Amino acid sequence: MVKEYMILAAMWLFGMIGFILFIPQKDRRKGLLAAIMFQALIWLCDMPSFTYGLLSAPVRIFPKATDLTLTINYFFYPILFAIYYVHSKSMNSLWLKITSFFVWISIITIYDYILERYTDLIKYGSLTWLGMWIYIGFLFSISLVCCNWFYKEKTPIQSYVGGTNED
Which residues touch 21 (CB under 8 Å, ≥6 apart)? Predict the structure, then answer.
C-alpha cells in the first residue's frame, strides 16, 4: 500500500515540476488548455472503458480507486500531453512529429503497463497492452486535433502540402 502511494506522490511531483520546467512561460496558457482538453477527452473515453470492462480500478479499497483516477486521468497524463503539445509546435519535419508522437504514446503505454503489472492501482479487464497503446494514441490524436482547432493552426497535412487554413 505504501508503494502505491509513493508512486502516486511521485507522479504528482514530477507532473508539477515537468509543467513548470518543460513548458516555457509564454506557452503555459496553451499547455493548460491542452491539459484541460486531454482531461475532458480521457474522462469521456474512460466512462465506456469502465462500463464495458476494458479497465477496472480496485474499488474494494476506496483510496486506491479515487487516487489513481485523479492522478492519472486528471493530472499526470494531461500534463504529459501538454508538454508534448507545446513542443510539437517547434518540430519542422513531418517524420520528427510522427516519431515523437509514437515515442510519447509508447513510453506512456509502457509506464501504464508497469503500473498495471506490478501494482494494485489498476487492472486491465479485456484490454491488452496493444489496446492501451491504441487507446492512448487515440486520445493524443483527438486532443491534438481539438487543440489545433482551438488555436486555428494548420493541420500537419496542410502545412506540408501547402494548403491554407483560411475560413
Answer: none
Q: pTM to 2 decimals?
A: 0.82
Q: How far apart are CA 26 and CA 17, in angstroms?
A: 17
Query: 7, 76 in Cβ contact below 8 A?
Result: no
> Residue 131 is placed in which grid cell?
489496446
Cβ neighbours around 68 below 10 Å, total: 22
Least confident of 12-21, 81-90, 102-111, 153-162: 153-162
Q: Distance between CA atoms of 57 and 65, rounded to whole angstroms?
A: 5
Nearest to 122 by CA among 28, 30, 57: 57
- Residue 112 clears pLDDT 60, i.e. is over it: yes
Q: Per residue in 76-103, pLDDT tens?
A: 999 999 999 999 888 888 899 999 999 9
What is the distance between the alpha carbons of residues 26 and 34, in angstroms, rounded to a whole number? 14
